[in-house]
From TrEMBL:
Species for this entry: Rhodanobacter caeni
Main location: membrane
Record carries keyword Transmembrane: yes
Domain of life: Bacteria
Protein name according to UniProt: FtsX-like permease family protein
Stretches that traverse the bilayer: 289-317, 337-360, 380-401
Keywords associated with the record: Cell membrane, Membrane, Transmembrane, Transmembrane helix
Compartments reported by the entry: Cell membrane
Amino acid sequence: MSMRMLLSMLRRHSLMPGLVMLQVALACAILCNVLFLTWQKLEPMLAPSGLADKDLILVDQVVSPQRAWTAAEVAAGVEALRRTAGVRSASAAFGLPMVNSVLMDITLQGGNGAKVGVNGYLGEGLVQTLGLQLAQGRDFLPAEYRDFGMGVSGYPWDAGVAQPVIITRSLARKLFDDGNAIGRTLSDPSDKDDAGYRVVGVVRHLLRNQLGQATDGRADNTVLLARRIAATTLLSYAVRVDPGMREVALKGVKATVKREFGPLMGPNPTARVSFYSERRERAFQSQRAALWLFAGVTLAVVIVTVIGIMGLTGFWVQRRTRHIGIRRALGARRADILRYFLVENLLIVGVGIAIGMLLAYLGNGWLMRHYELSRLPWTFLPWGALVMVILSQLAVLGPALRAAAVPPVVATRSV
């Protein structure tokens, strides 16, 4: 049957095709947005941390209600932690992965003019302590570190000298067209008096601590700055331990923190000491719950769509049994009948998908206004369309096979 005749038949009997089209449009709109929301939750969970995950202990919320910690106390804490049994390396830090109590936001502009918002981590020896892998360049030199803390000048480098910085490989590709960042300078568009940052090293990965922004390829938007933690009110440490002495080292680190800082933390200390892997597990609990919810919604949409298309198409086939029989009697093969219903369904579903993608985009705009959701990338629309095409073709296959299997002598009877 020609496409012209097929369209003519659909126009004469528009109710059933219209119902299928409406169902596909709604299902496609829902599915596109659910796939996008699922990916938004899943992307930070799949992003590599770049750290020595299982061997890294994080110490944070070391707070004294009486006064700020002095630079000498911060340094003494580092030395005490390094002497703890099972500890390989320790660093005082300002900002760490999975530590949301301290956040540093910086906007960087690269050689290609791109502006990228990043999270900054400060601390001496963080490359070694965090277990980061250098892809290019080098670690900071001891002479490059400057103090950071209360009472310290905001820009302790010489006038006109860019401060050294280590960025991720992902950032290097975003900020420079050729991806080669070593020795090149980054600027902060918000600070016209700043001399900028000179890239001395590039690490493979380093997960940012703002997990809500670790989406759309932004999980590695992170930099290390050559700052040594001095006087501070909120103290954090990163501690890397021997893999064979994890539990021994954890107990030792807790005891060291209590001994070094306990007297000034008061009767109800707030310090948290735990492995990075445990923090990551807890941080993603709500993400996993949301994924289960989205999986349930997706499954419900799929089941309702398949059942709906099968029911409507089955009824539509039954109504045209005489027509099918006449075509079989005139020489149409089973393959011709099967192909006819598949093409017809594809045409109906195609129109429904086009409407559904428009509804998905409009629905995402509504969600953006009311729930601060990110803009739906256009790439999710063809994926949702592909899923709907596959589901619809599978759903119509059963009724189409039953129609193709009816002998002409039976199909031409009155119905």
